[in-house]
Design brief:
CATH topology of the largest domain: Hypothetical protein af1432
Strand content: 5-15%
CATH superfamily of the largest domain: Hypothetical protein af1432
Distance between the termini: 96 Å
Number of domains: 3
Number of strands: 12
Largest sheet: 6 strands, antiparallel
Radius of gyration: 39 Å
CATH architecture of the largest domain: Orthogonal Bundle
Shape: elongated
CATH class of the largest domain: Mainly Alpha
Helix content: 40-55%
Strand order of the largest sheet: 3-2-1-6-5-4
Length: about 575
């Protein structure tokens, strides 16, 4: 055969299925059935291509079938089948097999070129233990920029034109099967992402705790975008800064305290402009604030950053950092982040509003307690100290946050009922008579009655009302015993008793700390709950407890330290 004749066999064919001679109709039908069956199989596109390569090799009795499927950006995936191997590889360009011309010129084919034409491809075939003498190949473009290249190799058999044409026609059906599988995968992924966003939104809106909302938002970012870390910057309007409120991922602990000026860095730019950014390489972006990585010891490679807006006001910046497995973020990720940011904005606004209302309520309660204290010059700072001591006890007990918040409010309001006690009793510069003491004992009832008009304090009132009860039932106002006394009331009772003993009174000076510690320990099981007293002693040992006479920053007196050691030794206790 002349070289001109061989050259004609290399001329590109026209797009679309080629006509097949009647003798090859059975073969073509058989090959087409492979594509039809795979199209209906519901398999992922990768499995469809791998199976097609394997079945095609067996039917045509070849030593190897190689299929390159174009993904994007000159990136091909290789699907191959040999007698000893069936697999697929990412990022395997067809140029390695000498098929670079097919990339540039789709819808071409060749038959059995001269050995010297593929001598340079020897290394490629040796990788798969092949020594082909005959080659045939084709490429096709289905008008959706999904180029498919097929290469058939054999050591003995020379593929006929009819067989190549039948294989090429079957590849059109294969392309359709792969495309359908990819569209199905996209649809399933979008549905999954939608469900994920809905679930994250539900979780975000299931709490009014701002910190919890922020933490869950970051969990949502990491889960939804499959990235190494996420960050949520909040805007500090007073200082003109944005700051990491929380960050999840491997570098969470290192990056959560970083602050940037509004306009500084990528996040600062987004906070200032309200525009989203997709940054494939932060090192090449002039807006990147490298000090973030220097402080966090975290290497940022790529990121998606979007504003968190509510009512046309930017309240934060949401950021996903470093796509996992060496990938980069894309426009789809950007849209997902913007959708998530909408949900975060709603939940965060609600939580911040609730937090502001909560803070206002606490400040109002503190102001009321302070006003009442000003009626009694002998107990200045008592409410603050009881609150601090109660908090220290709960920290040793590891109580949950809801209980701690109720306790905090109950401690602030524990003496609010004194507003109903007459000045002649409350301000008396001496010991009270039995009648006056009975009048003073009414202050928990007065407080309970006053606060009962505030429905949201329903769970707080019992702790305030019963903080003067005793375990032996000799307390007031209800004479409750042991576990009948609410847990919060038992905690406040210890804190209140300590402050009363270590504070000056008109009728007696304050007890020394060592004497007060002994008195407190001896009251266990009679007046005070032993568990709460033990927790108090642990807090005291750690320096969390102070007195009206000694500031918290000052060291515990030596005599008090000796009492702690003695009680611990006698009762085989560990305070640390």
């Amino acid at each position: 055969m002349s070289r001109s004749a061989e050259k004609k066999k290399k001329v590109a064919s026209k797009p679309g299925p080629r006509p097949v001679k009647p003798g090859a109709e059975a073969l073509e039908k058989r090959l087409l059935q492979i594509g039809v069956r795979l199209r209906k199989s519901g398999l992922p596109s990768e499995d469809i291509l791998a199976r097609f390569a394997s079945e095609l090799r067996k039917i045509l009795k070849l030593d190897g079938v190689f299929l390159w499927y174009f993904l994007k950006d000159a990136d091909y995936r290789l699907f191959m089948s040999t007698p000893n191997l069936k697999s697929w590889f990412d990022h395997m360009p067809p140029e390695q097999a000498g098929l670079g011309a097919f990339v540039q010129k789709p819808n071409a084919h060749f038959f059995n070129p001269r050995p010297e034409h593929f001598a340079g491809m020897k290394t490629f075939y040796e990788n798969f233990s092949l020594k082909p003498e005959h080659l045939a190949a084709f490429s096709l473009d289905d008008n959706s920029k999904k180029v498919l290249i097929g290469l058939f190799v054999s050591e003995k058999k020379q593929l006929s034109k009819a067989e190549l044409a039948a294989a090429r026609n079957a590849a059109f059906e294969l392309n359709l099967a792969v495309r359908n599988a990819q569209l199905q995968k996209i649809s399933e992924k979008e549905s999954e992402q939608t469900q994920t966003i809905l679930e994250i939104s539900r979780i975000l809106n299931s709490t009014l705790n701002p910190k919890t909302v922020r933490t869950r938002a970051m969990e949502g970012v990491v889960k939804l975008l499959d990235c190494e870390a996420g960050s949520l910057y909040l805007i500090d309007e007073a200082r003109g800064e944005i700051y990491f409120e929380v960050a999840l991922g491997e570098a969470a602990d290192q990056v959560k305290e970083i602050r940037l000026k509004i306009g500084e860095g990528i996040s600062g730019w987004v906070a200032e402009t309200g525009q989203s950014l997709l940054i494939p390489d932060v090192a090449k972006d002039p807006r990147w604030a490298s000090k973030v990585d220097k402080k966090s010891k975290f290497q940022t490679k790529n990121m998606v950053t979007v504003p968190v807006k509510t009512r046309n006001k930017i309240i934060g910046v949401l950021q996903a950092v470093n796509k996992c497995r060496g990938r980069s973020f894309n426009q789809a990720d950007l849209k997902l982040m913007e959708s998530l940011a909408d949900s975060v904005a709603i939940a965060l606004e609600n939580a911040l509003l609730h937090d502001e209302q909560r803070r206002t309520f606490f400040e109002t309660a503190e102001a009321l307690a302070d006003a009442i204290e000003k009626r009694d010059p002998y107990t200045g700072g008592h409410t603050r100290r009881v609150r601090d001591f109660s908090k220290a006890i709960t920290e040793e007990l590891s109580l949950d946050k809801d209980i701690m918040e109720r306790l905090d409010l109950a401690a602030i309001l524990h003496d609010v009922g004194k507003i109903g006690v007459e000045d002649r009793v409350l301000r008396k510069p001496g010991r009270l008579t039995d009648e006056e003491f009975a009048c003073m004992c009414l202050h928990p009832e007065y407080g309970s009655e006053i606060l009962s008009h505030i429905k949201s304090l329903g769970k707080v009132i019992p702790g305030m009302r019963h903080h003067h009860e005793r375990l032996d039932g000799r307390g007031y106002p209800a004479g409750l015993k042991n576990s009948q006394i609410p847990q919060i009331a038992r905690i406040i009772s210890v804190a209140d008793t300590w402050d009363a003993m270590t504070s000056d009174r008109p009728y007696r000076p304050a007890l020394s700390e060592d004497a007060a510690l002994k008195e407190l320990w001896q009251s266990r099981g009679k007046q005070l709950d032993p568990q709460m007293v033990t927790a108090f002693f642990k807090a005291y040992k750690k320096g969390k407890i102070y007195t009206q006479q000694r500031e918290k920053s000052k060291a515990i007196p030596a005599q008090a330290q000796a009492v702690l050691t003695q009680i611990a030794r006698e009762n085989k206790l560990e305070w640390d």
